[in-house]
Structure formats: structure tokens, C-alpha cells
Amino acid sequence: MSVAGRYLAYGLKKSLWRTVTFSAISMIICLIVASSETATDYENYKSTGIYMLAIVLGVCCTVMPMLELSDFKNRRNLDTLFFLPIDRRKLAAVHFISGFIQVVVIYTVAFLSSLVYLLINTDCFELAYMIPYYFLSVLVGFVIYSFFSFIFNQGNTETDGIILCILWAFVAYAVMAVTRETVIKAFWGPDTWYVEHIQRWNEGNSFASWGIVYAPINNLTVIFEDLIEVNRHGAQYVYEQMYAYRYIQQMYMFFVWGAVGIACAVGFVIGFGRKGAHLAGEPSDSWLAYKSIIPIYGYSLALYSMTENSFEILLILTVILMLIGYVVYRRSFKIKKSDIIAIACILIPILIGLLLKSMMPTYVYV
Question: Cα separation of 155 and 290, whole Å?
């Protein structure tokens, strides 16, 4: 066995108790949810509770990269790990594979426990669809896991890595939602004023939700719930069918996220190999860290504020939040000139917002 293979076996053995513990907790939670959902007998409405499987997978794919890579955020541990007779990129790949194997094991235990329970205790579901759901959800889990592995690696400390993971998980949604908000208000007016805008608003909101990293597993689960839970009736089922159909129409977004997942996996291995041990514990200077995330959120919030009546308060709050972000980034109240310039550039989205605001239609109520 090669050095990388032996190191992988050592890592899996070292994390065995963690895997067993997570698996047991996940299995118990999924069984509790499955039993409670199938016990419901309100207007012939029963549910498989597979949404809990999606939650378990999402949590594991978020937490596991942090647990697997936390040793690389400590300079003393990093010196020891880099001293091993294994190439850095292979070292990164081994930890990446080790963490994802743990995720698959935990998820598989939870999935099989739910499936066996449903097979034994129910006869009103199309459980054959659970098989493709499992394999597709594992692929989606790979995307989420790759994303958080890549983003966590951008931070030079555990705290920075966690903060960046939280912020990047929703950054695309923030940008897409602000764009939706400003465009609709500028050209069609607020959707709450006229019924004809509600459909356009809902469609825009549905598409913007794809910007959240957890959207693929959520939307995949909604689609398969509609296929599996054929016993459901009533207004609630029609409502959920509508969302399932909308996600099927936007299925191309699964491929977009697939490309993102592959890019993140490759970027993680390459970026890990180039990262020096001396950066551990230092401020996170990566362009995918605070340098980008603070302006993106700041400018998005500034643009959004220009469509609101109390935009002055929101703008002041935006500047304060950006200042706090740069203080956290620099570990000091003494921020750099580049940070001040970035905050000053908030004038650009303000000007765009004023232009859009001038285009908003005026409504006269009689």
C-alpha cells in the first residue's frame, strides 16, 4: 500500500468514533422523524420525512470539512503534517476523501434506517424512487462538501474559516435577491401592490433561492417527495407540486452547481498545495476571503437600501457593518487605506440605486 493509502486508512481509523457517533445520532433523529410523519392521519396526509435525510446530509457536508481540516489551521500541527513523506496535494486529497467517506457512511446509515422503517411500517409510498434519490443526493452532497472544503481552506484560522463558510453559503442568494428586488421595483412596482406581479415575484424568488449552497439538496428532495409521497391530497399537496414542477423547470441549475462542486474540489487540492505553513494563524488575505466577501455584501445591502423608504438608516448600518467586517479581518481597529477605499466605493451602488429609484413607477390611489 502506498504512503497516501496508509495515511488514508490511519485517518479513517482515527475518526472512527466520530463517524459512529454521528451515524448513531443521525439514525435516531431520522427514525424519530419518519415515525412521527407516517403516524399523521389528517385528511389522508402522510409524509416520508425524507427532508430530515437532506438536513443530515447538509449538516454533515458542512461540519465534516471543518473537523477534517481544523488541524491545518494550527501552525504547530501544520509543521508536523507537512513533515510527513507525502506530497501536499496528495495530503489534501487524502483528507478530502477521508472526510467525504465519513459523510457517505453517516448518510448511508441514516438513509437505510429510514428506508427500512418505511418498508416495514408503510404501504402507501412509491419507495422505489428512494434508490435514485440516494445516489443523486450523494452527488449533491459532494457539491456541498467540496464547496465548504474549498471555502474553509481560504481562512487561515478556524474562526475565519467558519465565518467565511457561513457568509459564502448565502452570498449568491444575496446578490440574486437584491437584483430581483431592485429590478422588479424599478420596472414593475412592488409585487404587494398588484396581483399581477405576485407570479413574477415568486418565480424570481424561486430562482434566487438557487444561490444558497443548500438549495440543490432541498430542491432535489422536494422533487422526490412529490414522486414518492403519492398519497397526499388537498391544497398543501398542490402547493408542493407547484414548487416541485418549478424546480424541474430549473433543473439546469443542478448542472451549474455540479460544475461549481468540481471546480471547488480541484481548487481545494491545488490551493492547499500552494498554501504555506507560515500563513496559519495569520489574517486571511485570500481574495476569496474578507477582501471579496465584505464588499459583495456591503454593496448588495447598499443597493437594496436605495429601494426602501428609510434608505438613510440602512446605508448607515451598511457602512457600520463593513467597518466591523474590516476590523475582524485586520484584527485591529486600525484599518488600511484599501479598506477605506472599498467602503468609499459604496457610492457606486448608491448611484445605481438612485437611478433605478428614479425609474420606479408612481402609483396614484383614488
Answer: 9
119 or 247, greater pLDDT: 119
CA distance 294 to 286: 13
The Cα–Cα gap between 88 and 94 comes to 10
Highest mean pLDDT among 101-115, 170-184, 277-291 belongs to: 101-115
Alpha-helix runs per DSSP H in the chain: 3-14, 16-38, 51-69, 75-82, 88-121, 130-154, 158-187, 196-208, 215-228, 235-249, 252-274, 290-305, 311-330, 337-344, 347-359
Scored b (16 or more CB within 10 A) or e, 113-131 reads: bbbebbeeeeeebeeebbe
- Backbone phi, psi, residue 121, to 5°: -105, -5
Distance CA 107, CA 104 (A): 5
Mean pLDDT, residues 214-236: 80
Nearest to 275 by CA among 73, 2, 36, 24: 73
User: In angstroms, what CA-CA distances link 133 with 83, 126, 141, 217?
Assistant: 42, 12, 12, 10
Q: pLDDT for 113-134, tens place per residue?
A: 999 999 998 887 889 999 999 9
Q: Kindly tell me if the per-residue pLDDT of 238 is higher than 70.
A: no
pTM of full prediction above 0.90: no
Quick check: 126 and 228 in contact, CB under 8 A? yes
pLDDT tens profile 265-274? 999 998 876 7
Helix 88-121 to helix 130-154 angle (10° resolution) is: 150
Phi then psi for residue 45, to 5 deg, are -100, 115
- One-letter amino acid at 136 equals L
Q: Residue 198 pLDDT > 80, yes or no?
A: no
